[in-house]
Every structure is written in structure tokens, then in C-alpha cells.
TrEMBL record:
Subcellular localization, as worded in the UniProt entry: Cell membrane
Record protein name field: Leucine-rich repeat-containing N-terminal plant-type domain-containing protein
GO cellular component: plasma membrane
Major localization listed first in the record, in broad terms: membrane
Length: 597
């Protein structure tokens, strides 16, 4: 009996061994991909001369279906169906992949998804052989430096559903063959240098939902046939050279949720037919040449929460019916030909987040505007108007307010009596009649930084009547990125604690009465790109520590009493002579050589 049991155990072990061995052989077989696929992948790798992402580090051996990062094979055929190379650290500019796209990618004849995104240094053109990938459904080649034209062979990819080539340097027209891609759902060609007109063949794409051409050089009129693309939910043609009128047929895009035509050369009136876009949530027509009035019917768009009509030639009257636009949260009417006289009362009572009415002919006392205690405002722009009176505590109780712009008005207010909510992030009060000391507002900055979500990073108080000295700075100012106190009456010296502005990129103290030496601690502001200390009374020499400011793009030391040799280094010597003129005895490149003692 024992011998029989032993034989059974041996038989069972042998069976298990065979099963395991069979599984291993099957895995080994499935891990390998077809030779043509392997050749295509290795050809791609061979044209990548640098890979700081280290994605291709795993591409060795022939087990490309199992161990190669970004490669996926069909489990039944062992053919490569997906090549997805995505820069996982796209925010890090040092993580690049340098090279070109191999024409041999066409050997991946079963490929359905091709993604090469965000590597910045993939250059050259798209190989015309890409048209041989007849099974391709998704093509993403975003945020590289690809050049040349979009190859006409793209029109052979009749199974393609997504074509995304944004963020490259493509030139020339959009190929007519794009109209052959009847399965297309998404076209994203934004941020290139494409020109010509919108191909008429686009009207052959009944399934198209997403169409983005923003930031190109597309010209000509907006074709009315766009209104026949009934599946469209997203249309962005902003920042191009489109001209002519907005076709009324766009009102037929019943599923559209986003419509952006900003930054073109469009003329005429806003068609009232746009009110038929019942699903529209975002409308951007800013920076064109549109005239006439805003159609009252737009107030019937029940889902519209964002509307930007700024920088056109729109005129009065402003429809009071906009108060009935139930979903409207963000409204920008800045810089048109409105002469509103007062801030519309309905804006104060309506629950909105962003109101931008710069240059809208608004006058009267700012304090007369009394938003509700429960206001949701996060951004207010009333600059370039004729507002008067004091600022005081008008905005103090707006607990969500992050940005306030009141520049170019006639506001006369003591800085020490002004209050802003703790979450404030940007304050622009330049070109008013503000006076007093900046000590309190800088103290408020440091206090805000201790609260969740707080910290002012943008402060412009230039062209006012501010006096006193620049106080010692504390840790709270560390987040400030933009500080402009130019053209005031500040006196005294720049405190050594200026180094606390460790994130500042623009520092402008020009046109004041500051004196003393330029502190060496400015040289520790490593993010600084703009430094202007002109038209003051600074003495002594320029500190050699300024040579550590490697990000400088602009400097100005004119009209002071500086003396001595300009620190010799690329950081300063690349700037023009004019940046150093009208001082007592500055010398050295770019000025005349210093005289030997």
C-alpha cells in the first residue's frame, strides 16, 4: 500500500511539473511579439538619441509583450496593439526624450493606439508611412517639437477616432483628407503654426465631438457648415486669424457646451441664434471686432455659467435681463464701448464668482456698491473707470475674494485703512491717489500666509502718492512674485530683509526717493527676472552678488548716483548701455572701461 501511495505522489508531482513547465513555455511564447513588431519598436528606439525619462530602459531582449514599458499586445495574437509613451513628469523641463519618429513604426500593422506625449525634444516630421497603420484608432503626439506639414497620408487612417497633435510646430494647411476619417470623435491641433482655411471636408465628420484649433494661424471666414456638426460639444478656434461674421448656423450646435472664438478678427453682431445652444456652459467671443448690442436672448441660456465678451466694440444698453441668466457665474464685459454709469445693481445681488467690468464707463463712489453679505466673488476687475472715494473695508467681508483690480481710477484712500480678506492673492491698485504707508498692507500679507489658502503673490501699488519707508520684510512675504511700488514717494533705504522675497520675479522700485546702497541681499532673489531701481538716489557700487541672478531679463539702474565698476559677468553685461546711464561714475562693460588709478 505504501509503494502505491508513493507512486501516486510521484505521478501528481510530475503532472504539476508538466503543467508549470507548459505554463512557463506559454508565457515565454506570449511575451514575445512578432518579428515585424519587434523591428518597428527597435527602429523607434534607435532614433531616440537621449531618453532622460528612462522609459526605453526596459526595451531589451525580445519579450516586448511582457517587459517593455509602454507596449501592450493582444493576448491572442501577440501583436502589438498599443504603444503608449507618456512623460510622467511633464512639468519637469529636464525630463526629455530627444530624437525623431521612425518611419518603421508602420511595421506595427496591428497598432490601435499610438501615444508619444510631452517629451519636448521629439523633432522632425510625422513619417508619411503612418498612413499604413490602418487599424489605428487613437493617435496622440502632443507637446513635442514636431515640424513640417501634417502628412496627407493621415487621411488613410479610416478607423481613427482621436487625432491629437497639439503643442508642436506643424505648418501648412489642415489636409483635406481629414474629411475621410468618418469615425473621428476628437480633433486637437491646437498650439501649432497651421495656416489656411478650415477644410470644407470637415463637414463629412458626423461623429465629431471635440474640435480644437486654438493658437494657430487659421484664416478666412467661419464656414456655416460647422453648424451641421450636430455631435459637437467642444469648439475652440480662439487665437487665429479668422475674419468675417459669426454664422447664424452655429446656433444649430444643439449639443455644444463650449464655444470659443476669442482672439480673432470677427466682425458684425453677435447672432441671436446662439441663444438656441441650450447645453452651452462657456461662451468666449472676446478680443474681436464685434459691435452692436448683446442680444437679450442670451439671458435665456439656462446652463451658461461663463461669458467673456471683453475687448470688442459692443455698446449700450446692457440687457437687464442678464440678471435672469440663472447659471451665470463669470462675466467679462471689459473694454467695450459701454457707458454703464454705475455698476448694475443686479450684479451686487446675483451669486457670481467673477465680474470684470474694466473700462465700462463706471463712475461714482466705490463705497456705494454694496454686494450682499453672502457674495461669492473670487475675482473683481473695475479698473480703467472713473470710480472715486475710499476703498476702506468695501471688500473686507468678501471671504472668497482672491483677486481685486482697481487700477486707473480716481480712488483716494489711506493704505492703513484698507482691508482685504485673508484669501486675497492679487491686488492691483496702480494709478490712483492712494497715500500713507505700505507697512500695514505688507503686514496683512504676512498674516494671510498663515491662513489656509492665503498668501498674496501679486501687489501693484505703482503711480500713487505712497510715502514713508519700506519696512523690514518678514517670512509672510516669501510667496510674493510681483511687487511694483514704482512712481511713489518712498524714502529711506532698501532693507536687507528684501531677501525674504525669495519667490519674487518682478521687483520695481523706480521713481521714488530711495537712497543708500543697493543691498547685496538682492542677489539672493534667484527667481528675479525684472529689476528696476531707476530714478532714485542710490549711491555706492553695484554689489557683485547681482551676478547670481541668472534669470534676469530686464534691469534698469538709470538716474541714480552709483559709482564704480559694473560687476563683470554675463548676468549684467548683456544689458544695453541705457540700463546704466545717468549715474555718477559707473564704468565697465557695457559702459566705457574704468580708468586705472
Amino acid at each position: 500500500m505504501a509503494a502505491i501511495n508513493d507512486r501516486l505522489v510521484l505521478l501528481l508531482l510530475g503532472s504539476v511539473f508538466c503543467i508549470v513547465q507548459s505554463s512557463d513555455e506559454k508565457f515565454e511564447t506570449s511575451a514575445k511579439c512578432a518579428q515585424s513588431d519587434l523591428d518597428g519598436l527597435l527602429s523607434f528606439k534607435s532614433l531616440i538619441v537621449e531618453d532622460r525619462s528612462e522609459i526605453l530602459k526596459s526595451w531589451s531582449g525580445d519579450a516586448c509583450c511582457a517587459a517593455w514599458e509602454g507596449v501592450e499586445c493582444d493576448s491572442k495574437t501577440n501583436r502589438v496593439v498599443k504603444l503608449e509613451l507618456q512623460n510622467r513628469a511633464e512639468w519637469n523641463e529636464t525630463i526629455v526624450m530627444r530624437g525623431t519618429l521612425s518611419p518603421s513604426l508602420a511595421k506595427l500593422e496591428f497598432l490601435e493606439v499610438l501615444v508619444v506625449n510631452g517629451f519636448r525634444e521629439i523633432k522632425g516630421s510625422i513619417p508619411s508611412s503612418i498612413g499604413n497603420l490602418r487599424r489605428l484608432k487613437q493617435l496622440y503626439l502632443e507637446n513635442n517639437k514636431l515640424t513640417g506639414i501634417i502628412p496627407p497620408s493621415i487621411g488613410k487612417l479610416t478607423q481613427l477616432q482621436t487625432l491629437s497633435l497639439n503643442g508642436n510646430r506643424f505648418v501648412g494647411p489642415i489636409p483635406d483628407g481629414i474629411g475621410e476619417l468618418r469615425q473621428l470623435i476628437q480633433i486637437n491641433l491646437a498650439k501649432n503654426r497651421l495656416n489656411g482655411s478650415i477644410p470644407v471636408t470637415v463637414q463629412n465628420l458626423p461623429s465629431l465631438q471635440f474640435f480644437d484649433l486654438n493658437d494657430n494661424l487659421i484664416s478666412g471666414p467661419l464656414p456655416p457648415f460647422l453648424g451641421s456638426l450636430q455631435s459637437l460639444t467642444f469648439l475652440d478656434f480662439s487665437r487665429n486669424n479668422l475674419s468675417g461674421k459669426i454664422p447664424a448656423a452655429l446656433g444649430n450646435l444643439s449639443n455644444a457646451m463650449t464655444l470659443s472664438l476669442a482672439g480673432n478678427q470677427l466682425t458684425g453682431k453677435i447672432p441671436s441664434t446662439l441663444a438656441r445652444l441650450a447645453s452651452l456652459s462657456s461662451l468666449s467671443l472676446n478680443e474681436n471686432f464685434l459691435d452692436g448690442t448683446i442680444p437679450e436672448s442670451l439671458s435665456n441660456m439656462s446652463k451658461l455659467w461663463y461669458m467673456n465678451l471683453s475687448r470688442n466694440f459692443l455698446s449700450d444698453p446692457l440687457p437687464a435681463s442678464l440678471a435672469n441668466a440663472s447659471a451665470l457665474l463669470s462675466l467679462d464685459l471689459s473694454h467695450n464701448k459701454f457707458n454703464l454709469g454705475r455698476i448694475p445693481a443686479w450684479i451686487a445681488s446675483k451669486e457670481m464668482t467673477d465680474v470684470h467690468l474694466a473700462g465700462c464707463g463706471i463712475a461714482g463712489r466705490l463705497a456705494d456698491w454694496k454686494p450682499s453679505a453672502t457674495s461669492m466673488f473670487t475675482s473683481i476687475d473695475l479698473s480703467d473707470n472713473s470710480l472715486t472715494g475710499e476703498i476702506g473695508a468695501v471688500f473686507a467681508n468678501m471671504s472668497r475674494l482672491e483677486r481685486i483690480f482697481l487700477s486707473n481710477n480716481y480712488l483716494k484712500s489711506n493704505l492703513s485703512e484698507m482691508s482685504f480678506p485673508e484669501v486675497i492673492g492679487a491686488v492691483d491698485l496702480h494709478s490712483n491717489q492712494l497715500y500713507g504707508s505700505i507697512r500695514k498692507i505688507l503686514y496683512d500679507i504676512s498674516g494671510a500666509c498663515s491662513s489656509p489658502g492665503g498668501c498674496l503673490d501679486y501687489l501693484d501699488l505703482s503711480d500713487n502718492l505712497i510715502s514713508g519707508t519700506i519696512p523690514d520684510l518678514v517670512d509672510g512675504e516669501r510667496r510674493l512674485k510681483f511687487l511694483d511700488l514704482s512712481n511713489n514717494a518712498l524714502s529711506g533705504s532698501i532693507p536687507w530683509s528684501i531677501l525674504m522675497l525669495s519667490s519674487v520675479r518682478r521687483l520695481d522700485l523706480s521713481g521714488n526717493r530711495l537712497e543708500g546702497k543697493v543691498p547685496a541681499s538682492i542677489g539672493r532673489l534667484r527667481e528675479l527676472a525684472w529689476l528696476d531701481l531707476s530714478r532714485n538716489g542710490f549711491t555706492g557700487g553695484l554689489p557683485v552678488e547681482l551676478l547670481g541672478l541668472n534669470n534676469l531679463k530686464h534691469v534698469n539702474f538709470r538716474y541714480n548716483h552709483l559709482c564704480g565698476e559694473i560687476p563683470q559677468g554675463k548676468t549684467l553685461t548683456v544689458f544695453p548701455v541705457s540700463a546704466f546711464l545717468h549715474n555718477d561714475c559707473l564704468c565697465g562693460t557695457p559702459l566705457a572701461l574704468c580708468k586705472k588709478a
